[in-house]
Amino acid sequence: MPQTPKANRGPSAGPANRLALIAAAREVFGDGGYAAPLSAVAKRAGVGQGSLYRHFPDRISLAVAVFDENIGDLERVASLPDSTLDDLLQEVIDQALVSKALIDLIVAGADDERVAHLGTRVLAVVDTMVTRERSAGRVRADLTADDVMLAISMLAGVLTWTPGATRPDTAARAWSLLRRSFAPAPAPSPAP
């Protein structure tokens, strides 16, 4: 028995379709990486490919929309007055555990201005957290946001090639090593 096609709801479906596409892309990119087929995104969202391309004319624009939301989550963590660098890094790890697509996107679109703003936003969040942590004495006085960005890149890189089942343990071990390197130096022992 042939299936009846869905009724076209016209322009009123636009906002819901866009949200469905972003949610579907998060899952598809999470499973298959940045190079996952866009047809799988449209199918998972329950829309046609024409709708996908009306909202997102290319792969980068779709991936940027997904990761704009991820970075929004990081910004929310940083906006909490009691949040720490551990809280921020845990959010980064949680995101990296489910998707290596952000790293793939940043590498693939390094020269694309739509991608550049992602790094700028993440750097601003990290800078806020590092400044807070230095003021509280929880990290070395010479730790910079660039140091933490390098650590995040190293951690994300390791997680991209780590098998899925071992990613949480690897992430925890890596962050433990990084945390120790960020810690303030112990006070010198008094002379005997």
TrEMBL record:
InterPro entries noted in UniProt: Homeodomain-like_sf, HTH-type_TetR-like_transc_reg, HTH_TetR, Tet_transcr_reg_TetR-rel_C_sf, TetR_SbtR-like_C
Top-level taxon: Bacteria
Residues folding into a coiled coil are none
Taking every annotated instance into account, which residue ranges of this chain make up the domain HTH tetR-type? Answer: 15-74
Region forming the signal peptide: none
Q: Which residues bind DNA?
A: 37-56
One Pfam family here: TetR_N
Query: Keyword set for this entry?
Result: DNA-binding, Transcription, Transcription regulation
For this entry, the protein name equals TetR/AcrR family transcriptional regulator
